[in-house]
Amino acid sequence: MAPRTHWLFGDQLGPHFLDPRHGGPDAHSPVLMIESRSVLRRRRFHRAKAHLVLSAMRHRADELGDRVHYVRAQTYAEGLAEAGAGVGGHRLTVCHPTSRAALDFVTARDEVDVLAARGFLLPRAEFGVWAREHKGDRLRMEGFYRWVRRRHELLMDGDEPAGGTWNLDHDNREPPPRGRPTLEAPAPYSPAEDEIDDEVRHDLDRWERDGEVSFVGRDGPRRFPVTRREALAALRRFVSHRLGDFGRYEDAMLAADPVMSHSLLSVPLNLGLLDPAECVERAERAWRAGEAPLNSVEGFVRQIAGWREYVWQLYWHFGEDYRNRNALRHTAPLPDWFLDLDADAVTANCLSTTLAQVRDTGWTHHIPRLMVLGSRALQDGWNPAAVTDWFHRCFVDGYDWVMLPNVVGMSQYADGGRMTTKPYTSGGAYINKMSDLCAPCAYRPTDRTGERACPYTAGYWAFLHRHRTALSANHRMARAVKGLDRLKDLDQLLDESAQRGGRAP
Ligand SMILES: Cc1cc2nc3c(=O)[nH]c(=O)nc-3n(C[C@H](O)[C@H](O)[C@H](O)COP(=O)(O)OP(=O)(O)OC[C@H]3O[C@@H](n4cnc5c(N)ncnc54)[C@H](O)[C@@H]3O)c2cc1C
């Protein structure tokens, strides 16, 4: 029997998606790839993100040569029709897609057989078993992460965690070194563009000129890997030169050094060019060889085997309705300066710096995402579904599965605490402690009111006041809420916050 054609989505580009072992596609199957224009037309994505996805797909097609049928179509349905799917018994296989919409689409097609997901550490069914066992408790990342470490024998010495402890977070929360504008870490991997990138840039220019699509953000040299070879080079460079300092300053921010010691691997991971298992195994090998300290290696393993895996599993576990959760009833629209990434319209240095990073690269590390961008949205009561859409469109590593738990749950507390134990937001004091962003700012992190009132400090108290009743029932927030009673200037603070409205702070 002729092998079935295997359909590769644009985030299934690594060799493991074509590996016939363990229930994979037929050996030597012909490959179908569909570049669907309607995906780009529907939403205003960051230009760098559109570039990365198209460049990665076209590079993969180039590698696969005669084996691939590469279809440019308006929609997936049109692409399948053009490829003759279903005609004369022509059947296809596809690995479990990463979004609910795509999964619904492929499962509804009679001619498509859906294979198990790849690119994650655990099958969905195994998470289901773990979640059932922990029913009644809340599903917490820490317990899940320890279970994954045991299950995959990651950083384990027998039955014990390597180094005798599961969690080295207390070593991984240092403020940035004072008086240094950068960490002076070795530079991350930087790819060289080629003629496929030129062709992608040319197409994007043309579609934009023709009014077919519209983007946010600036076009710039490609910063992230789009091929397996580039992805492996980026992983190697990170593990051998940058992993050592990853842990210590993981939560710190420096205006002139946005990347610090972060890995920049989310793009190749989410395009499916790297498998998470190979990333954590390489990091562990570096520790066992004495080439990287345990706090950095544990911190990195925690991000991938813990957070990334947990977020993927929760996306499916929480169900379709999760995207509409709005426990705090936040309804304000996103202001134009935020939607347009207009960093120059913003006075607050932390927000302006972070927004400029997003505008120029489509990337910032997790603390600016959570404690600068997400916190602004939460304090100002922006609609969580619109915030999720914004993150999805503006970040080069944004996909439906990773956005929903990270934004609806972690950043906007719109799920009322299913994912986190408390809302993640803070006054300016936290940003001041963890960065060099406040010193040159026109606002002062200590000021709640007046001309130089920090929008994060004032916004924090206004947020606690607005949700006083709900938050005082949360034992991790009750003390903070009580602090409201000590504020003699609360009325003035609330008046000034109301006057600011959606204006850029
Ligand atoms: C509001 C918000 C939105 C986010 N949106 C995304 C997103 O769209 N795509 C995305 O991949 N990550 C997202 N994250 C998680 C995290 O910020 C990024 O994975 C990370 O900043 C990417 O940079 P890096 O590769 O240098 O990561 P590193 O700091 O080097 O971490 C290593 C890897 O861990 C994984 N990881 C760590 N935390 C998470 C997490 N919470 N969820 C998923 N993976 C994680 C990533 O694959 C990352 O590459 C978001 C976090 C927040 C708070």
Structure characterization notes:
The chain folds into three domains: about 5-115, Rossmann fold; about 125-190 and about 225-320, Alpha Horseshoe (Serine Threonine Protein Phosphatase 5, Tetratricopeptide repeat); about 325-500, DNA Cyclobutane Dipyrimidine Photolyase, subunit A, domain 3. It has helices at about 35-40, 45-65, 75-80, 100-105, 125-135, 140-150, 195-210, 230-240, 265-270, 275-290, 295-320, 335-340, 350-360, 365-380, 385-395, 400-410, 430-435, 455-465, 470, 480, 490-500; strands spanning about 5-10, 30-35, 70-75, 90-95, 110-115, 155, 160. It has 21 helices and seven strands. α6 (about 140-150) packs across α11 (about 295-320), α11 packs across α16 (about 400-410) and α18 (about 455-465) packs across α21 (about 490-500). It has about 500 residues and is mainly alpha-helical. A hairpin with a 2-residue loop joins β6 (about 155) and β7 (about 160). Flavin-adenine dinucleotide binds near residues 308 and 311.
Short description:
The protein has helices spanning 37-42, 47-64, 76-82, 100-107, 124-133, 141-151, 195-209, 228-242, 266-270, 276-288, 294-318, 336-339, 349-361, 366-379, 384-394, 400-411, 428-434, 455-466, 468-472, 478-482, 490-500, and strands at 5-8, 31-36, 68-73, 92-95, 112-115, 156-157, 160-161.
Proportion of residues in β-strands = 5-15%
Helix content: 40-55%
| Strand segment count | 7
CATH class division of the largest domain: Mainly Alpha
CATH topology value of the largest domain? DNA Cyclobutane Dipyrimidine Photolyase, subunit A, domain 3
What is the average per-residue confidence, as pLDDT, rounded to a whole number? 94
Radius of gyration: 23 Å
**Which runs of at least 5 residues are low in confidence (pLDDT < 50)?**
none
What is the H-and-E element order?
EEHHEHEHEHHEEHHHHHHHHHHHHHHH
Distance between the termini: 65 Å
Major sheet characteristics: 5 strands, parallel
User: What global shape is seen?
Assistant: globular
The spatial strand order of the largest sheet comes to 3-2-1-4-5
CATH superfamily of the largest domain: DNA Cyclobutane Dipyrimidine Photolyase, subunit A, domain 3
Bound molecules: flavin-adenine dinucleotide
Whole-number total of structural domains: 3
